[in-house]
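Translate sequence into structure tokens.
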Amino acid sequence: MVLFVAGCAMETGEQLERMVLGLAMLAEDAAEVVVSRLRLDCFQSPPCRDAWEAVVRLQRAGKAVEPVGVTELCIGRGAFIVNDAAVFVSSLLECTFRHDVAHVELYCSKLLAAAERRLLGAVGAWLACAAETLQEPQELRAEVLRRIEAADVVGPDEFCTLAEAIALTDQPQARPISSGWRSLDTILGGGWRPGQLVSVAARPGNGKSVFCLQAAMAAARAGVPVLFVSLEMRPEELAVRAMRAQSRERAAALPIVMNKGGSSRLGDIVTAARKHYRRGQCGLLVVDYLQLVSVPGGPEQRWVLVGEVSRALKLLALELSIPVLAAVQASRAADNCTAIQLSHLRESGSIEQDCDVVLGLNCTEAADGAEERDIDVIKNRAGGRGKFPVELVEGSKFIEQLAGVPEFDHMRPSWDPGP
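Result follows.
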């Protein structure tokens, strides 16, 4: 198989291993992806295996993955003499180009697939020889499964027994993050919870970005660091909105990190979340909005790609144990209804399946021509549903109508013991 990079044909194998290692030294985000995706048996070349272990040690120690550090670790391990190490590490960088960083996920997937094929090939070779010994088929099948499982990428710490899960409930649990609206916190049982994917759906111009920024600022005021990824607005536009809702000095003190635009690729967003989480800068991830996230791939239908984004964000929430809040654009069918329904989530039914909580921002016209708005919890995997009236003030923040009582649906919240 041949891989085309920068207009040149590159055979897979050791050259691909060298290119991936070079990318890890070329960009911090690439190093994060390489270390998190690959493992030692993905590399066949002994020099590449030594360089891989050096990259892992530097990245996990929080140090820069750069040529000098990798060279020194390779020499310290006794894998190379001084001149050979420097030449080899330089050759890794010669295999790469800056624009290849965007494809590091693809290259890692190819190395993983090659490692799996080698594993299956080795098991197949063993089986061909073992079959001649006239062992019982049951014994051969059990040994094949044992050999595959022994080298599988899934580690034993990724599973637990029911008894272990029950024991985890006795440990102190992370407190929910307040949404910033008292009525919404009441319905949700405290606010956003770790591992949840929350979507807020609305038609264009009905306040998705306002809601996301207001929720981010509420979390930041509570001391939770927020990573805010906007695919519609520049940081200075968000800053203007933040200063409308809060004074300049107080807004500037909030622990919120924003993207400067640039990439809308799913892989880049996931990598950025992991990087800022490791730095203590991501206790809540906000994405505005989900359907603008791009996914590299073939000619799949749009609903397939959107489903891939929603599933990846849910898995990221579980991996980092943080809530992920994603704005979602509702379809035109919502214009003919008084309230947003799950079926109005545009382009994919996967969104409603993957999300733990789905909120609808509704806006209707009263008989006197005035706007009536409410925030509606239309799905809540953890308990109750309901809605409460709000007012959009100067296009910068939603104010809940405290005189209104949340209108709970047919399912009472699990935290309310009520009659």
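Note: Residues 104-130 form the longest helix (27 residues).
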